[in-house]
């Protein structure tokens, strides 16, 4: 958040303060309505300002002091004037603090994802029919085919559904109504290993630990860093 953004947010917040309709009585306030361009744009500016400011922790941000500075600035009657260097130093401290908070949140989420995935795989390995390979990949045979198995240089046609361990479906060729064709070695390691275990015509369920999936990168909006993944994979055809 730089000084310019903060000033714009401050001006917008003042517009929000001034755009409400006065109450007729203490117990029966008049419903606020957007009727004109002035009140509408002021309200939207207020919303945008609130979104910019709400992530600042309460221990750092004081709304009363903010409101006081906002009103004084708007009326050109600022009591405590800071030069640009002092203001920049304050905002730099704010930026540094927010970055530390965000980094701590990310590290906490990463640790939680790793622990959750490890616990899930540990329990899942005990279930009947679940096989764990040397790499840590777990798989379950849903239907065993009798065709050829693909090699690392082959291309395959598959149908699949991908889920998080909480059951959230993040991708599905079934929903798209179209199988996917790709090289066996062109996908995540868990798939590359698992596909080579499957005779054509099989349907397996892969339980893929984070280090054989997307690891620290994650993927898209649903697959967070270090997420353990579950895939139902149906091998339809091996293409040479």
Key attributes of the depicted protein:
240 residues, 2 domains, Chitinase A, domain 3, 7-stranded antiparallel beta sheet, alpha+beta, 6 helices, disordered N terminus
Mean of the pLDDT scores?
86
**CATH-defined architecture of the largest domain:** Roll
Query: What fraction strand?
Result: 15-25%
Could you say how many structural domains there are in total?
A: 2
Quote the CATH topology of the largest domain: Chitinase A, domain 3
Contiguous helical run count: 6
Molecular structure report:
This protein is α+β, with helices and mostly antiparallel strands and 240 residues long. It has two domains: 3-81, no CATH class; 122-239, Chitinase A, domain 3 (Roll), CATH 3.10.50.40. Helix content is 40%, strand content 18%. The chain has six helices and seven strands. It has helices at residues 3-18, 37-53, 63-74, 84-124, 173-176, 189-195, and strands at 130-132, 138-143, 155-164, 169-172, 180-183, 203-208, 229-239. Strands 1, 2, 3, 4, 5, 6 and 7 form a seven-stranded antiparallel sheet that branches.
Summarize the structure.
By secondary structure, the protein is an alpha+beta fold.
How are the secondary structure elements laid out?
Layout: H1 3-18, H2 37-53, H3 63-74, H4 84-124, E1 130-132, E2 138-143, E3 155-164, E4 169-172, H5 173-176, E5 180-183, H6 189-195, E6 203-208, E7 229-239
Antiparallel strand pairs: 1-2, 2-6, 3-4, 3-5, 3-7, 6-7
Helix pairs in contact: 1-2, 1-3
């Amino acid at each position: 958040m730089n000084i310019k953004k903060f000033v714009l947010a401050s001006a917008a917040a003042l517009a929000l303060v001034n755009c409400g309709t006065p109450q007729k009585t203490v117990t029966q306030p008049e419903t606020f309505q957007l009727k004109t361009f002035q009140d509408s744009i002021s309200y939207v500016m207020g919303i945008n300002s609130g979104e910019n400011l709400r992530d600042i922790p309460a221990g750092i941000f004081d709304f009363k002091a903010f409101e006081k500075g906002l009103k004084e600035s708007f009326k050109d009657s600022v009591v405590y004037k800071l030069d640009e260097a002092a203001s920049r130093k304050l905002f730099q401290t704010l930026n540094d603090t927010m970055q530390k908070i965000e980094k701590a949140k990310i590290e906490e989420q990463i640790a939680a994802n790793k622990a959750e995935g490890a616990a899930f795989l540990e329990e899942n390995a005990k279930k009947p029919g679940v096989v764990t390979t040397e790499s840590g990949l777990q798989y379950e045979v849903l239907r065993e085919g009798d065709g050829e198995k693909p090699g690392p240089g082959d291309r395959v046609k598959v149908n699949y559904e991908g889920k998080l361990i909480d059951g959230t479906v993040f991708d599905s060729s079934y929903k798209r109504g179209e199988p996917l064709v790709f090289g066996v070695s062109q996908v995540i390691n868990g798939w590359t290993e698992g596909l080579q275990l499957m005779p054509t015509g099989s349907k397996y369920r892969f339980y893929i630990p984070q280090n054989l999936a997307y690891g620290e990168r994650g993927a898209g909006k649903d697959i967070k860093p270090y997420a353990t993944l579950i895939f139902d994979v149906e091998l339809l055809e091996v293409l040479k």
